Queue: 2 jobs
Job 1
Amino acid sequence: MSRVAALPLKTTTAEALLGMLSLRPMSGYEIRQTIEWSVGNFWQESYGQIYPTLKRLVKDGFAEAKEDGSRGRAVYRLTAAGRKQLRAWLKTPSRPQVWRNEMLLKIFFAGQGGPGTVRSQVEAFRELHAGELRKFAQIRTRLEREYARHPELPYWRMTLAYGECESRAMVTWCDRTLAKVTTLEEVADAS
Amino acid sequence: MSRVAALPLKTTTAEALLGMLSLRPMSGYEIRQTIEWSVGNFWQESYGQIYPTLKRLVKDGFAEAKEDGSRGRAVYRLTAAGRKQLRAWLKTPSRPQVWRNEMLLKIFFAGQGGPGTVRSQVEAFRELHAGELRKFAQIRTRLEREYARHPELPYWRMTLAYGECESRAMVTWCDRTLAKVTTLEEVADAS
DNA sequence: ACAAACATGTAACCAGTTACATGATTCA
DNA sequence: TGAATCATGTAACTGGTTACATGTTTGT
């Protein structure tokens, strides 16, 4: 019944790190940087998760640590068991994350705040996704130029297309919603 | 430095409950049921959050509890301060939730698993969103029929349209992705 | 000489879910 | 009478982030 060390067991952090190490051996620091510019759009990890998890991966035999002389740097590489574990995970069904959407909640209760509430919320949301689309366009250019012949490029393109598809849909919804808001405001003004 | 009771302070649960109580006075149990069928698609609360938060709302003067004779039932109603608090919250910018997408992570690493990995992941995801679209269609019918003249209907429609818009985009992405997967499989077979 | 980036790590906190305990009421 | 639903509540756990502490290396 003792309250033990308790590193998370059901987490996908471990699997995310296995995936990262499958690209190439890396240090914890490098993993974080790489996550940021590669999958940062749909995944993030903090050092507070990365370092303890890496140690657990070594303990479980899924990764090996190797001291990198120069700095106080530990480079981790996948073991055969780690690669097997990663492949097994790739085959498992993904649990859909049940998200919370604060903006939608505010719109749902907009009866208390009026059309103006909706307008400012939706305008900010539109700006957010318009920005995402610009970012995706840049990433796409860079991806096609720098990894033109990389065997995994087709898969990376798919994840990028997901973001583009979603953000386009969001912008569309924003425009339609703003049009409806205008109508509501006109009705309110007329009365 | 003592480890105190510590009910969450920055949570939006309190505001979500204020919103629910703005619809009508409710018990904790009722709030949960109502959340499920109204905003369940983009918001959920567990009893473990609801009951302690309701007590805090009373303590902070945002709600009043009234015993409902029949059962051991406490019905909460919004106070003027509570309504003011809700309106203030509606005006604040919404923090975008940074979500994690396990499916996209698996696709990103699909080099380790091959096109088959992507296919099964995407097929499941397509089924999920096709189901969502059917559910949304039902909700829309019910909404237009049962709340035809409700003053907040326009806002409720907007949140529904969001889900429809997003799920349609997801289905589109799935279809495009599955087409690409087929191409990849053909290339793999040919070699 | 100093800033920026590299590099590792942990304790405290946070927002939430799950599992469980308890009991009343309704209805077939 | 017994199952389903109504109703309230909490302790333990979970999966994470943030803030902090510490020190090295590189480049200007």
Job 2
Amino acid sequence: MITDSRVFDDEHMPAILEHRDQEVGQLSRAWTPVSSADDVLLYGPSGVGKTVLTKHTLGRLTKARTTPHAHVETMGQTTGDVLRDLLGQIGGHPVGNETVEDLTWTVRNHLDEPGICVLDEADDLPGTDTLDALTSIDNLSLVVICHDEQRWLGCADPAVQHRFSVEGTELELRRYHVDELADILEARAELGLRDDVWTRTQLERIADDVAGVARVGIQALFAAAELATNRGHERIEPEDIRDSYDRARHRIRQENLSSLPYHHHVLYELIRNAGEMRSAVLHDRYNQLSDSLYQDRAQTPIGERSRRNKLSKLASYDLVEVVGERANRRYSVVDPGVKSALDILSVKKQN
DNA sequence: TATCCACCGGAATTTATGGAAG
DNA sequence: CTTCCATAAATTCCGGTGGATA
């Protein structure tokens, strides 16, 4: 049934970008006189193709002429990480131990012509000094990708605000309409599935159910095909589609959890085990068990303030849900089926 | 309504790490 | 080897806030 699963990878780039002509146009225009390329603040909800749009448009641009460019994932990265990534992509050779100052200087020297740097998942960038380093590099135009442009601008320095408040700098990406997303799904289905196992109507159904969020739609289509295969169906059945959404979201969350370090896993598993808990209880548990949880580990237990940082990370990854305000706040895991591969609580029981 | 309280999250400060200079 | 310095992560400090309580 599935002829090419790579078509459904998050990293897969479609040959043509459908229903984003206007946005591609605006981005291209911002970059046109590359000698004075504009910065762009690109915003919109998760999974509607912000990353794909920039990669696609950047690909078109650099096919026409060579321009130094980079696409940097900034979520959870330090200033040094971002600069090293940028330097590597524009042809430099980061060693791994340069100072931020050195890196900034090296990048500047590498850019004898104007370049473009896309900062993906940049919601947390204001407030760090990453932007200071990047904006101090002449010749470098920035594309900032975030979810909420008001919040982003609100947190940024006045200098950065000014740089991103020029007319035409903002570019909003909306959710797809049902027929638009169905077109996108159709292109994937044609490439990755046997053509007698799906119908246009089913794709429209999925597009509607995921409210125009392309990433979830694509993952759901893939999950539906997997379910149909597992169940021995000849083609995708309504029940496969019905069950595909949980499977798709489950997979995205499981991946997110796996990418996080040990402290996050500890907190996650404590919450998952309890079902729902308030923060005082969570901290008590953590304190009780920290000796056994952290023995034989390089890491040591962390204090409450740091745990709060880990918890907000877990929440932003949609792994942990926070309900209620202030004193009566409760934590719970979004999908108890998502488990840490580290098997933390069984280690606890042995002790 | 007024006061209390838990606890979040920003900002400043400290600690840990590792490289470079003296 | 010791000292110094930069960075990132953790901790300390604390103001603000919205529900709880009386």
